[in-house]
Amino acid sequence: MIFKNKNFTQLVLLVNNSALASLASYALTIFLANHLGSERFGKYSYVLVLVGLQGILINYATDSIAGAILAKGERKQTVFNLIYTVRIFFFILTTSLIIISTFDWLTKVGVVLLSILNFNLAFLFELRKKNKTYSFIYLMERLTYVLIIFSLLIWSETKLLTIFIIFFLVTALSILYQFKLNKYYLFNYELPKRNDFIGLLKSNSFLIGISLSAFAYGGFSKFFIENNIGMDALGIFSAGMQFVVIITLITAQIHRVYRLPIYKAILNRNTTAFMHFAKQAFFFSVSPALILLITFIFFSEFIIGVLFSEQFKALNDLMPVLGVYFILASVDSIFELFWIGFKKLKEYFLINFCNSCILLITFFYMSSLKIEDFVIVIIIFKSFTIIYSLIRINFLKKMWFINK
Length: 404
What we know:
Elements: H1 6-59, H2 62-71, H3 76-99, H4 105-114, H5 122-127, H6 131-155, H7 160-181, H8 183-187, H9 194-203, H10 205-228, H11 231-241, H12 244-267, H13 271-307, H14 315-341, H15 345-364, H16 371-402
């Protein structure tokens, strides 16, 4: 039964911890939105968009590929050396570009401070099958940060710079503790072989392209909203998109639990195991998003009225539409695992790249439309990607397991 296995038990714990962390984080986000107002919250969200973009480059899709590398027989130490070297390299490169850019000083400082989150060891805990340990570390990290910011906001007018500095300090302490638990890998770190480093850069280039293409939906779209409608509209849209954090955190735990079993099932051409884990991953990924959509359809006005100030009233009509996007995003995240497992990254990259380019061109000409129109366009283009993935993955599955 789906509810009586080790993966489900582990997933329940991880999701519970993630739910607590996301609930605390979202409570803080709501408080920040109401405290800062839509325009200043838009500025805060603008920094987060840049952090997300930098994070894609620093991580270089290493979280997604670590399990696949280990499944091929590489040592955990080798995987750690390779992944952390890549992250350090891209941190230095992207930080240098941020510093010499034309962004204002607050944006530059905020991006650099928040980029520390890319140095967590979640991938190593996953490889060591210590997901539970990391989930508790992450939970304590988030709760600590949220409690400190809440306290400051209640007692005084807190500047954005202060929020960024506190985030940096709390995350740095968490990462230091993660290193303490994994000190063997830290003390035995050495630079990877040049061929392995270059090989990873080449092999993950398509994954980065995919990530950047996916960023068009919730990332680059914010730049167009800010440019075409204003920082106030960006604040409203960002407040609504914060609900996707709940879905993202749950999906991340699903990936940690099912990524390695799915990769191994594909590698061993085990049809039964693949279908078993694939069905479970889909079920646990889509269910929370579906519940969220139904909730917003019937209770959107009540929820927004309770959580947000009058400035965010436009979310009443926006949230049911965003709920549809949440479902599509959760489905697409599972399809990504299959594309990686079947080693069809080039094709997956091309469909995402073409789709995102057309999406951004469409945004470019949407100067006089409302936020809801932007979301509907995002949903249409995301649907194209999912329909294509559904057809192709089904074909690849049949061909892969028939030829075993």
